[in-house]
Request: fold
Amino acid sequence: MENQNQLIDSFGRVHNNLRISVTDRCNIRCFYCMPSEDVQFVHRSKIMSFEEIVRFVRLVVPLGVNKIRLTGGEPLVRKDVPELVKMLAAIPGIKDIGITTNGILLPQYAQQLYDAGLRRINISLDALNAEKFKEITRRDDYEKVREGIKSAHAAGFDPVKINAVSIRNLTEEEIIPFGRLARETGAEIRFIEFMPLDADNQWEREKVLFAHEIQEIISQGIMPLVPEEQHDKNAPATNFVFEDGIGRIGFISSISAPFCMSCNRFRLTADGKLRNCLFSLDETNIRELFHTNAPDEQILEAVRNSIAAKKEGHEINTARFIQPDRPMYSIGG
Ligand code: SAM
Ligand code: SF4
Reply:
């Protein structure tokens, strides 16, 4: 039966997918996300507790939310994330829990996360070369991420997805090695176009390495890619397989082919602010509503109003675009 309470915005998009940032802290410093130093983190006392996160999820499940992804900052630097996964997995109506992680702490946590009920894992890795990794992340942890990927496979995650941000004049040489990795390990590589969410405001359109260019490099250097039938029409990635059927590649073309019109996501930041879009300039303070003992109906009304106010798209490709004050690490990617 159709749920009459679904979170539908004014463009008819149904929102069932909640991304929860569990912390804004991180153990590395990717230049496209965080400043190199003097990072302003939210004080620990202002971070949503696990109980508050669970309370919020329980409230929005009757509105049709059934998919959750934990993110950050680096979600695994927060203590006891497998416990949170267990708490979320126990909520009736939650069908799917995922995590996006830089992978460094996976050797410690992959199995616990799997056992707690997590099934979807995206590991971020932009280079298959330790020096380039260090240039991007300002840290020397390449081998740890590679170990993390192995731990995810060993724990039973299938597929393991790898997110690689693509940046012009920086990551071109990584494309063919990633293509080969997809073929050799079965990991799904997803190339993400660089978005204007960096802390240093250094984003420029010229720095975006576009999906169609990457596709061309792979087709020339390995073999042609053929489009895969899209099972989830709300998925941000457009998926391809190599012509011989071995190896999958996805493209998240946020700049060259925005998927805003099929977006089904909204976000809760680590400090409890609800955002209807990564690029939104407005937020709804859920944590404050909790702390002022607002009744559930008032909180639900605030959620509905936030979704109703969602804009048609992100406007990056227009002169109207304004980069949000919060960089990616502070929103939760
Ligand atoms: N720390 C975790 C990680 O890196 O996977 C989770 C949070 S991170 C903000 C989530 C995703 O956003 C990562 O895949 C990261 O590469 C991506 N990301 C961060 N800043 C970005 C930007 N400016 N443009 C495109 N993707 C970005
Ligand atoms: Fe940390 Fe992820 Fe941002 Fe890199 S992209 S600095 S790993 S939060």
Notes: Residues 26, 32-33, 71-72, 74, 100-102, 124, 163, 165, 192, 194-195, 197-198, 328-329, 333 surround S-adenosylmethionine (ligand 1) (CB under 6 Å). The first helix runs from residue 50 to 60. The chain has one domain: 3-331.
